[in-house]
Amino acid sequence: MTRLDPSLEASQRKMKALLTELTTGAGLRPTFVDGVKLARADCNRPRTPVLYEPSIYVMASGRKKGYIGDRRVVYDENNYLVLSVPLPFECETEVGDDGPLLGVSVRMDMSVISELAIKMDVRRRQETADADGCIRATPLDVRLSDAIVRLLECLRSPVDAAVLGPGIVREIVYHVLCGPQGDTLFGILGRNGQLAQIHAVLHRMHTKYTEPLNVTRMAEEIGMSVSAFHHNFKAVTASSPLQYLKSVRLHKARMLIMHEGLGAAIAADRVGYESASQFSREFKRFFGSRPMEESKRVREILAVAAPESARAEPM
Prior knowledge:
The chain has 315 residues and is α+β, with helices and mostly antiparallel strands. The protein contains twelve helices and ten strands.
């Protein structure tokens, strides 16, 4: 086994200690800094559907396995995950022998990436991105690890978080852009590239998921034939547009049921389903349990009362 850089090992130890201090319960929880969440899991979790927003995920301990189509992506204390599009996939969680899974996620803000792209003069690289890179694990280096440690340190204080946090987040994004996944993230900024076009469609579907799906119109708006649109969409998401929209709606409904205590019928209507019975069938097929059963299961995992779970998301 190759020994890690001693500086990186020291940074990782600090990261783990800080996350142990800052996390008070299981789940993925927001912090004082917008777009930054802390993750903790105290036991293994089986392969389960998840919906992640475009972010980087850095682990201090434990391991996660992400499954999308026939691909498997493993991210752990030595490899961070880069997710460049809002993507539903399946995830398996494994805690370590020496304690819980601990990690931090930082949302990838496209306005920050665009600003940095101008300063870094990366226009010539924008067409080199490939769709396969939309979700990929990348070896952690000491510069990124140190920046994560400083971010966690500032989360100890609301004032430090407000003053220092946004600048450190910007630095973290910069380090990721300088790494192997920079081309994929920069490629999203291109107006004419296929990845950028599909990203725009995904963003629209992710935010306007209650609207009816019109694949023909979507394809026309980005200048693709319907067949080319299907091909490129599946290359990025490993699913069809209909499957993607369905998974987004089901995840959104799940959050409404857990966090707002809505009944299945109301949640189904809120996310765009016309039939509550169809929603219940598809929910059970997707998550493996009925809506209320899933809500109870997740609350038991988080080990908190229902009203207090509003700020936690399942891992």
